[in-house]
Structure formats: structure tokens, C-alpha cells
Amino acid sequence: MDLYIVDGTYELFRAHFGYPSRKSNEGKEVGALKGYINHLQSLRKNNNYLCVSFDSTVESFRNQLFTEYKSSNHIDPEILQQFPLAEEVTELLGITLLSMKEYEADDGIASVCSLLESEFNKIIIGSLDKDLMQCVKKDKIIMYSTRYKNFTNENGVFEKFGVSPEQIPDFLALIGDSSDGIPGMKGIGQKTAAELLQKYKNIEAIYENIEIWKSNIRSGVRHSETISENYKLLQLFKDLTTLRTDVEVPKKTGDYQTKDINIKGLEKFSNNFQLNINL
Fold it and tell me: Which pTM was predicted?
């Protein structure tokens, strides 16, 4: 049996930009919600084990570590007001919800992968998020792009970025991740970061071997100065990009099996927001 894990926050954003605007009777924007529901309904048809991880509050412990980290202040209010509705309808559809408050949706996903890897034949993560690629393991834990309709396994991560899944936190710490508000090391791009990580396992080894590599790569002296002068910040960035795997999530495989749809509740929800949900 396989487990499909939905990055709910990603899917709601994707629906917001991919579906036409839709207003409820009260004038609230619910277009993203309609697209999100359609996606979950399609997944239910082909997956008996399914869950959704969601950034319930957007802010997490990472905001306390780095003030420039992404926050709800930078999210369109029209999307933000649909977050609690997306969580509500997920449960009405009989799908297990991981509602992340102190942590992020990605931490919830990473924790499920770590806890239940041996319990499923395969775990499929529905997302394009680079952070989540650190969860990928051979052909056992893979990612699926709902946008491009393709899968990414461990070899695919290396082909895309030139690093292994476990090196993704180091990679993102070096190059930055604009979607999370992480600037990375100025002047270091994907090619240089991959080159360094192919020679040295992580940022710690890169730092320890600066005197060796600074004269062997393009602009090495400049990059070595950047890393030397900002090493504590680089370590912080790695901490931010490292997903937590000890978040409290349901522990039994049966907890992730789809349940009966709450038809009355879904009908009421549909009528309240003029969504015309097909049951």
C-alpha cells in the first residue's frame, strides 16, 4: 500500500493562481478553495491512504530564529482567509489533516515520512517545494508535481540540483530560498553550491576546507571570504532549511486511511460558500 501526502498550503496557492475568482454570498473570495477541493476529490478516487499537511498559522518557530523568515504579512489576505476553510473541508472529505501551528506543513510531512517509511510500499509527496526534496529516498519516498505531472526520486533530485536529498538543507542555506525569505550567501549560485557539496558533504566540511578549495573553483577567493565572514549566519540558514522529523503526527497506518465523507457537513459547507461541490 502507498501513502499520498498532500502539501495543502502549496495546493491552495496553486489553486488560487490556477482557478478563476469565485465569490461567496458574503463576497468572500473562495476560488482557491474550489480548486483545492477538486484536487482532493480526485486524489480520493485513487488513494486509500491519504493525508494533508497544512500551515495552519503560517508563522512557526523559525520566525523566532530569523525575523526575515516568511510570515503571514506577505500573503494575500484573499488566500489567507481560505486557510481555515481548507482545513475544515479536508476533514469533511474524510481525509486526515495535519494542522501545523508551531511547525510548518513541511515538518509534518517530514515527520510522517520518518515515522512510517517502513510501513508503506511507497510514500508520495504531492508538492514542488525544494525543502521537501530532503525527504526523498531512492524510489521509496518520492515527490509528485501536480503542476507538471511528473515524479522525482533520489536520482531526479541529483539531476535537478547536483546534490543528494540529504544535502538539500546545506544547498538551500548556500543559495538561499526566496519563497521562505532566506537570502543565502551573496554571489553563490546553484552551480557553485553543487560543486562544493559534491566535494564536501556539508557546509561544515566546506568551511573546514576553505584553504583547499578557494583557489580551485571560479571566484573561490571571494566565495571563501563570504562564507568565512558569514558562517554563523550560514549555520542559521541551514537550521532554518532543515525539516524537523519529530513533530507529533498520527502513528498508525490506519490513521491515514480515508474515511467516509461527511455528506451533510459538506453539503452545508458547499451551500454556505456557493461552491457547488459534486458529491
Answer: 0.96
